[in-house]
């Protein structure tokens, strides 16, 4: 029910604003006895951190995480597990905001930036924390990434999560060139080395023009056993759709073939099956690893559309909260393409949804 | 938490299998004093009913709804409201299954039909009701449509919900030809009279070939005030994504410009604003009526991709539950394009999500 | 969130009014592969059924349950399990109301019966179904008993649930005389044969005087392993308190020594431990089988206070919905002591809470 | 679902252990535009703070709260509201632990202290943070008190919450002597000046003997309108029972006459009604302000039984986690009667439950 929580047995509640003293989350329902320390979380936060290339915001945030509760160690636990472990009680994670530049907000406090949540927060709440977008800022996604690191411990080493950007602006990667290892070699999470070069040029131009670009992010989970997720309203794809659509600037989610499936015939779309030894194998994965809301055992494949960063230097028509027409340009430190930093966020959401599905499945069926 | 429920303050729990004695739902949290009788629900069920054209399943189901609880009338209530009204207590709705043909299921009980949930239900539960797909059958969506009729009473007359099919197979409607009134004049909910004729030909061929076609459905809500929905994990678009993705055969959901936004520049995507008299007006609706997870006051626009009906007459490669390769053809009475009957279902889900958002917004803010 | 649901992984939603066509519940989250048929549920309903002695209401209700969904059987399942089994999908249970006497309600529709929910339903909803109390009638508890029968299948044979009435009016059973087998030999669930005779006299007088009596009910669960329940707000005793307090006419709940513990010293209250062979054994059970919100492995012991039936023949002072003073006598068929029929209801709630705790514990910890 | 959260529209999630760096809570769903600053919360924390008299633990904790998110102020907000206000987004509250004495825990890490959650945490989780009881410590209740201060802002000035201790050990206050103002004049929240003196003597003896005492706490809410709470499983008394039973050491909860109602006749128990001018007035309050799960408009009256502090100096029989008999004495800084500091905690839980009920009622009914 809670607006700022998601998940059921594995449940994450986030808090914090862009320019408040800190942000964080409480991760509840984690199984006990899993190795966890701040370094394990920090590794994922560093992948999302701002300021790592010229294609992301230049805001300087170390994004150092502190674990305030929910783990424990003593000499015996270190001997048995190799370090601190979860206790089964809520894990509180906090990240201090460091680079909230003191500045004059008078220009934006009354003006609604198109594409941002300024108008809607005002309409809903009657007031808003306009500093850096307040609660609607993408800084909140740091808390998701931290929670995702905990979720990964639940999933264990048998499940691999990977993410990539597959389109920036009108430029799509070529599936023929797909190489997961490339995603670590360029600042775009691009699995296609050639396309990465084109994006570099494209985004440099975009950045210099004070414009921004949209993107499509794709995340995969390999090793998920058949049987996770539950019909009808707890369908794995339903949970994934909700989780992904909650990411800032997301405007679409698809599973497997997604919208392309609308153009298929039944024959083209059918994921046929054959035995491979004593294992069931699928001959295609149009379903993206989910059928009837339950995992099939194939890779879970999710794509999400991220709209262009709303903050652009070009003047746009807008209005003030008091009903006057204005033209507005959004200055400041912005990602020219927020889709890039959405990759570790989407991976984290995938991890959280799957961890929850694992625990719920185990709860109902015992396996 | 419940797998077969959705919504928060307005909460719907559905039950029933394709070939059980009945199906239905419990609608909880409905405000008191709203007019409701079975005729008001029946009108919407009739729009989704099978057997109404040759382009939908020929299963004969009257889909007559009974209201078993949650409404009341006496002479005074009739005088005051004009008929029975909701009492604020749970509304139990039941639809009996009539046309569950007695037949021999031995052929499918061990064979996994590609695209269906046969394999995944077995993987999850270790057994399944294979008659007509059991719980995974799209007959469950009748309960959603019934619940949606209740939700519409909460939304009231100021909010209009409309739906259309905008693509069948590779054939898309032309936005230039869009006429909402057309959707009632053809069996496809098609808003483009020309395209409706093309679809007729296309689907006749598809049907005769024993094949099936995918589709894209689009639903709109007009009249939703700014301010509904709530960040971060109760975002209106998040709730819509979850609700739509839970519909049988859905593989993708998008809001507003959706995946197309990924190809836009920031300037193209910006929904600029201007005052029209004393009203804020947007110059475009790429956001689909939702920004920061909260309604903007524009039309809510949602599209969902529906994969082709998995049941096809063409032989497809599959396996049995005991690990043998088989070839399988799905006989029986199937929709050549399930996307058509998904329109009233998607409208109903939209109604339910909005009704819940209305009540939650009122709960938190008092307005 | 839903007002008419309880439980988390094992979740029960009830619906229905005293004088509607039927009442029932949807039981969601039940594990698959558990034996279940209507006879297994009926056995428990028959223990709560009205009209079985002169000490309970004379309303004639067969309370025949129908299972509308969620179970399945075929020849193979019968061979493997011995009959129908749960499928893991929602179990819909319905009980038709038979003896809703057609009568004139004009006398009570405007008068607030003291102790009943007439005034509060009007205050909340602005209208109410006054026939037999509508939704506030204890007939709703039939649905709980039906759900409890499902919950017992989850708990399995290793866990025994038992209930007794330990006080009626001012007359308490003598713990020295406690014999569980006596509870089946008298119409009061009384474990003390002597006291059962006193109650017979006492309640005959109460009944003849048109009055009513309160009671205290005690339920035990034996065989619950240590480790169920979860701090802090999902404590097993918290869940039990909520579940028991939701029973009609309940005004108090205590666990173990309960209110008596307030008068104890720390030494008196301590449940000391000693090893018995390789098993931990407690030397007392003041904690009632729960410490820190988690089961200890001892018997779970819960008591609940049930106020006297509010419907009495004596004239009481009241008011009308239009603000006039009236004197009111409640005619009709009422339990002189509703505490008696609360025993199977309290047992059912105990079963449901424990079944949910079992699944949640398994979900989080895997054991 | 979350184990460490409670409430629905107004939802509180707590985190933290006795000897971790900090503890706190996230309060979600708070309406926007309510005045809130740390001083308003601190005032309530100071009432629960340890070390304020010789009858509570001597642990020295300043319990200074920090608000990390969810409030905002600028010059216009200060002019309009007089200070910082809630924004409608989650309010994160943190209290640092200061006095976690560094000490040797080897004595208790393997020994199960009777009455504590040592054995049950081990049984559930397979390991535990034994320092000061870890998550099971009553230090967690500081977070509840902080959340309660937020809840009070939702309830507003028309609703008054008050609490008292009505029994310590076997010594009960005399209702004839009840004076709410006395509760602020003695260290026991005792409304009976004479009894306060007796308790002083009694608790001094208890403390010197290294023993402890149980207590009964009573809390009242005045000014709650009729209509809050909702049948059947969201009953106001059900929610209160759950909330109160979740307080450390609570073993029983009753509403109004509670267990005493079991001994009443229907006539004695009936809360008769009469018009007082144009207002409905009750002639008694055995129902404790709740009928049918909905507030009547009378005072809400709740009592809870608190068992004696489990930590006592007397040697008690116990076992180790490795299955050996031991005798154990709990040294350290303990409350001789935890019931005393339970008063502000119970008041806070009452505030939170009522705030949630207010928002839910408004959500469903609009009033």
Question: Would you give an account of this structure?
Answer:
The structure is a homotetramer of 367-residue chains. With 367 residues, chain A is an alpha+beta fold. Chain A has helices at 38-48, 75-81, 118-125, 141-155, 193-208, 236-245, 266-269, 338-365; strands at residues 5-6, 11-16, 22-28, 65-67, 71-72, 85-86, 91-96, 160-168, 171-172, 215-222, 250-255, 273-276, 279-282, 290-291, 294-295, 300-306, 316-319, 325-328. In chain A, the strands form six sheets. In chain A, strands 1-2-3-7-4 form a five-stranded antiparallel beta sheet, covered by helices on one side. In chain A, helix 1 (38-48) packs across helix 4. Chain A is globular and about 65 Å long. The interface between B and C is large, with 47 and 47 residues. Strand 11 (250-255) of chain A pairs antiparallel with strand 11 (250-255) of chain B.
Computed over alpha carbons, the radius of gyration of chain A is 21 Å
Structural class of chain A: alpha+beta
Mean pLDDT of chain A: 95
Strand coverage percent of chain A: 15-25%
Main sheet: strands, sense, barrel of chain A: 5 strands, antiparallel
Model regions low in confidence, pLDDT < 50 over at least 5 residues of chain A: none
Write the layout of secondary structure elements.
Four copies of one chain form a homotetramer.
Chain A: E1 5-6, E2 11-16, E3 22-28, H1 38-48, E4 65-67, E5 71-72, H2 75-81, E6 85-86, E7 91-96, H3 118-125, H4 141-155, E8 160-168, E9 171-172, H5 193-208, E10 215-222, H6 236-245, E11 250-255, H7 266-269, E12 273-276, E13 279-282, E14 290-291, E15 294-295, E16 300-306, E17 316-319, E18 325-328, H8 338-365
Antiparallel strand pairs in A: 1-2, 2-3, 3-7, 4-7, 5-6, 8-9, 8-10, 10-16, 11-16, 12-13, 14-15, 17-18
Helix pairs in contact in A: 1-4, 1-8, 4-8, 6-8
């Amino acid at each position: 029910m809670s607006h700022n929580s998601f998940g059921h047995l594995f449940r994450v509640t986030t808090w914090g604003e862009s320019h408040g003293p800190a942000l964080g989350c409480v991760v509840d329902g984690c199984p006990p006895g899993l190795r966890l320390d701040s370094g394990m979380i920090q590794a994922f936060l560093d992948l999302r951190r701002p300021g790592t290339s010229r294609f992301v915001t230049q805001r300087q945030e170390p994004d150092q995480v502190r674990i305030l509760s929910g783990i424990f160690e003593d000499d015996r636990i270190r001997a048995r597990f190799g370090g601190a472990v979860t206790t089964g009680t809520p894990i509180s994670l906090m990240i201090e905001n460091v680079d909230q530049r003191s500045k004059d907000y008078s220009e934006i406090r009354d003006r609604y930036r198109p594409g941002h949540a300024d108008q809607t927060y005002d309409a809903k709440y009657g007031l808003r924390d306009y500093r850096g977008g307040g609660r609607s800022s993408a800084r909140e996604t740091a808390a998701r990434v931290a929670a995702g690191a905990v979720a990964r411990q639940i999933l264990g080493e048998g499940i691999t999560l990977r993410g990539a950007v597959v389109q920036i602006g009108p430029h799509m990667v070529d599936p023929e060139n797909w190489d997961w290892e490339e995603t670590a070699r360029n600042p775009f999470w691009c699995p296609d080395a050639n396309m990465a070069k084109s994006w570099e040029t494209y985004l440099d131009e975009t950045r210099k023009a004070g414009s921004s670009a949209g993107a499509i992010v794709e995340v995969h989970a390999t090793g998920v056993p058949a049987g996770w997720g539950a019909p009808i309203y707890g369908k794995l794809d339903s949970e994934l759709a909700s989780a992904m659509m909650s990411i800032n600037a997301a405007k679409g989610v698809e599973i497997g073939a997604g919208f392309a499936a609308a153009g298929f015939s039944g024959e083209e779309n059918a994921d046929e099956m054959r035995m491979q030894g004593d294992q069931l194998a699928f001959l295609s994965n149009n379903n993206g690893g989910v059928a009837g809301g339950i995992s099939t055992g194939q890779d879970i494949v999710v794509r999400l559309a991220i709209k262009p960063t709303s903050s652009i230097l070009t003047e746009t028509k807008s209005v003030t909260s008091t009903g006057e027409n204005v033209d507005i340009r959004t200055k400041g430190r912005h990602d020219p393409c927020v889709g890039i930093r959405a990759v570790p966020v989407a991976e984290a959401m995938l991890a959280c949804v799957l961890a929850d599905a694992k625990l719920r499945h185990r709860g109902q069926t015992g396996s």
